Amino acid sequence: MNYYQLPLGPLGTNCYIVSNAKKECLIIDPGEESQKIIQYVNTKQLKPLAVLLTHAHFDHIGALDEVRKAYSIPAYVHKKEANWLADASLNGSSHFLMGQSIVQQPAEKIITDEGKLSIGDFNFAIFETPGHSPGSVSYYAKEDGYLFSGDVLFKGSIGRTDLPGGSMDVLMQSIHKKILVLPEDTIILSGHGPVTLLQDEMDANPFLNGF
User: Fold this and answer.
1) Quick one: three-class SS letters along 133-183?
2) 28 exposed, middle or buried (CB, 10 Å; 0-12, 13-18, 19+)?
3) Rounded to whole angstroms, what are the CA distances from 204 to 57, 70, 170, 180?
4) For residue 95, what is the enclosing H or E element?
C-alpha cells in the first residue's frame, strides 16, 4: 500500500490517496479543492473504490460530493456524525466560514462500531477515537504500519477539544487506549501537518507527558 499526502484548502487539511499494486485507491478526507484530488487520481490512472472520512468537520468533507460524483463511489462515516454532512451547524462551516455553508449528501456507508474494514484488497482496523469530535475514527493498516489519525494526534500536538462534542478527557483516553498501544514504528498520518512516527510522539509530544 502506498499513500500520497495532499494538503488542501486554507487550513491545509491532509487528504490521503492510498493506492495498491492494482492501481486501485481509497480517498481519505477530501477536504476541499476537488480538482486537485481528481487531477492526481486521473494522472496516476488510479481507480477509486471509496471515500473514508475520519470525521465530518467541514474542512475534511468539502470536496466529498464532487469526488463521489466523479467516480461513483461510496463514502464511509461514523454513525455519530452521519447527520453532520448535511448540517452546516454541526460540521462547523456555518461558524467558521464567512457566509458559506458546506452541505454534502448523506454517506452511503455508516460505521457503527470498531472492527475490520475491507474494501477490495485494502484492509483496515477501525478504532473509535472520539474527543476531537464524537464520531472521530482512526484507520489502522497493520500490515503497512500506517495509522490515519484524522485530527486526534499530530506531530507535536493533539486535536482541539473546544468544538461541539469535544472533550479533552475523552481525547486523551482515545490516544492512550487506542494509539499509544500500537507498535512504536507506526507511521502517523494526521489530518493536518507533517507525517510523524508514534515513537517520536511518545518521546517528544508535550501533550503526552505522563503517558
Assistant:
1) CCCCEEEEECCCCEEEEECCEECCEECCCCCCCCCHHHHHHHHHHHHCCCC
2) buried
3) 28, 41, 21, 13
4) helix 93-96
Q: Beta strand 109-111 with 75-78: parallel, antiparallel or unpaired?
A: parallel
> Is-above-0.90 flag for pTM?
yes
What does the alpha-carbon distance between residue 5 and residue 157 come to, in Å, rounded to a whole number? 19
First to last CA, the chain: 30
Per-residue pLDDT of the chain (211 residues; tens, 9 = 90+): 999 999 999 999 999 999 999 999 999 999 999 999 999 999 999 999 999 999 999 999 999 999 999 999 999 999 999 999 999 999 998 888 766 889 999 999 999 999 999 999 999 999 999 999 999 999 999 999 999 999 999 999 999 999 889 999 999 999 999 999 999 999 999 999 999 999 999 999 999 975 5
